Amino acid sequence: MTSSPPPVTSRSLPSHELPAPAADWVPACVVFDCDGILMDTEANWARVQRAVSERHGLEFTEAMERAMMGWSAADVATAIADAAGADRALVHADVLRTEEQTLTGQIVPLPGALETVREFSARLPVAVASNSTSTILGVKLEQAGFAPHLSTWVSSEDVPRGKPSPDIYAEAVRRLGFAPAEALAVEDSVVGATSAVSAGLVVVAVPSVPDGDPVPAHHRAASLTDPAFRELMARWLG
Question: How many domains does the chain fold into?
Fold first, then answer.
């Protein structure tokens, strides 16, 4: 018999409708999320969560998949371990091992992602801020071809707390040498956008689940190839 799904911790979220910055605002740097924005790895991450959950006797539901979108491996492991009454360290190791094993062949840049990063990086410093572990994030960015266009990238292991806490975005902007209010974040999930908004960045939401919970943001686009997003880029890059 399967156990109940891992509990979803309630989080204090900003309003999803945020006022746009001043009309003359332009970013001094850009920080992209990774999974769901630059590459199509969310489905693989869900498979990892499902496999680990079921190994520990838990039914992995669609509600769980949506709730844990954007969570770090550490947070996913804690939720599964708490629900299954298992050792957290063992579950965490299982999550990391399973993700590494299933990553091969799953790293596919999303439409317009590589081109967008190239265009921004030709004019501005660009970083990636991700809840992935350091090793996994490096593999993703190198294999998908993003690494040469980035000034830096920050993983959940590089800061005290992963998303939705502001630490990852704050660290990325610090490394780029700017204040948060000068930085643009591009995010797809509630968890990630909450992190960026809390850190003080201007956020463009490109939701990977269009009918999911509203993602807090100052601007919205359907994809990185959306004419609305391309218009913003043209304005910002001149």
Answer: 2
Distance between first and last Cα of the chain: 60
To the question of pTM greater than 0.90 for the whole model, the response is no
Domain residues for the domain of 219 are 29-40+108-237
99/148 same-domain check: no
Q: Is residue 9 part of a domain?
A: no
Q: Say if residue 133 is in the same domain as residue 35.
A: yes
| CB atoms closer than 10 angstroms to residue 33 | 27
DSSP letter assigned to residue 200: T
Q: Give the pLDDT confidence of 127-148 residue by residue, as tens digits.
A: 999 999 898 899 889 989 999 9
Token output for 188: 């797809």
Task: Give 204-225 pLDDT, tens digit per residue.
Answer: 999 988 777 899 999 999 999 9
Beta-bridge partner residues of 203:
185
What is the distance between the alpha carbons of residues 106 and 237, in angstroms, rounded to a whole number?
Answer: 32
